[in-house]
Amino acid sequence: MSGVVGIVVFPGSNCEMDCVESVSHLGGEGRLLWHGDEDLGGVDAVIVPGGFAHGDYLRPGAIARFSPVMTAVTRFAAAGGPVVGICNGFQILTEAGLLPGALQKNRGLKFLCQPSMIRVETSDSSLTSRASTGDELSIPINHFEGNYTCDDETLARLNDEDRVVLRYVDNPNGSVDDIAGVCNEGRNVVGLMPHPERACNDLLGSSDGSVLLGSLLDLVA
Q1: Into how many domains does the chain fold?
Q2: Catalytic residue selected from 87, 150, 183, 200
Q3: Of the listed 35, 54, 143, 195, which one is catalytic?
Q4: What is the CA radius of gyration of the chain?
Q5: Is 195 a catalytic residue?
Q6: CB of 218 closer than 8 Å to CB of 130
Q7: Which of 92, 132, 180, 217 could anchor a disulfide with 61, C-beta 3.0 to 4.6 Å?
Q8: Could you confirm whether 143 is annotated as catalytic?
Q9: What is the sign of the dihedral through the CA atoms of 53, 56, 92 and 84?
Q10: Active site residue 25
Q11: Residues with Cβ < 8 Å from 85, sequence gap 6 or more?
Q12: Looking at residue 131, what is its pLDDT?
């Protein structure tokens, strides 16, 4: 049976249907979850997609973290359930304390929408089990506040614990240590700024994102 991936929708999300389409293309079932839901309806994995949840007021993810669904997502993650935050979803996961660090405005204060080469730093995560360390993937980015930052202690811990999941080959936004994605201590929660759901079909210019979302589906097949 195909795994069911719950895709959370906030007011202002705009990548949820891209995620549904990509999950379906890869053989899974995408199911939309509303931000006001108090439970996840028995899904096998969760994606918090990109967009501008609540208009990015205050700062990206700062309001979305208080939505009822995030309490359910937090419980799900604590029980070992796989959770992936993409772009705005990554921002929400950091605001909710599910991932360390924060996302700030891009270096140069420019919105970036372009292909980007991403290097896989570890295959030991819910998003990279199909990949090999050192693989380079073409995955598009689409963000204004994708510049990952954390303090020196956190950065050292991420590196020591092999929790930097993805790095930019040519850093486009100023992220510390070229970081494009990180995972939690349990390795089941991953956040990344690039959009793998926009690179799951060669018709879109790259199918490299299928390595990442396919890894997620492997966990719930």
Answers
A1: 1
A2: 87
A3: 195
A4: 15
A5: yes
A6: yes
A7: 92
A8: no
A9: positive
A10: no
A11: 47, 48, 91, 92, 93, 98, 99, 189, 190, 191, 192
A12: 97
Q: Can you give the CATH number for the domain in which 57 is found?
A: 3.40.50.880
pLDDT of residue 1: 39
Q: Show the tokens assigned to 187.
A: 């390795």
Dihedral sign for Cα atoms in the order 42, 45, 50, 52: positive
Mean pLDDT of each 10-residue bin along the chain, 221 residues long: 88 97 96 96 97 90 95 98 98 98 97 97 98 98 97 98 98 98 98 98 91 97 82
Closest by alpha carbon to 100, among 89, 91, 87, 111?
A: 91
3-state helix vs strand vs coil in the chain, percent to 5: 30, 30, 45
The amino acid that residue 216 corresponds to is L
Q: Where are the beta strands (DSSP E) in 35-135?
A: 45-48, 83-86, 102-104, 112-120
Question: What's residue 2's pLDDT?
Answer: 65
What letter would DSSP give residue 178? G
Residues 6+ apart with CB under 8 A from 188: 77, 80, 81, 82, 83, 125, 126
How many Cα atoms within 13 Å fall on the side-chain side of residue 130? 14
Structural domain span for residue 119: 4-220
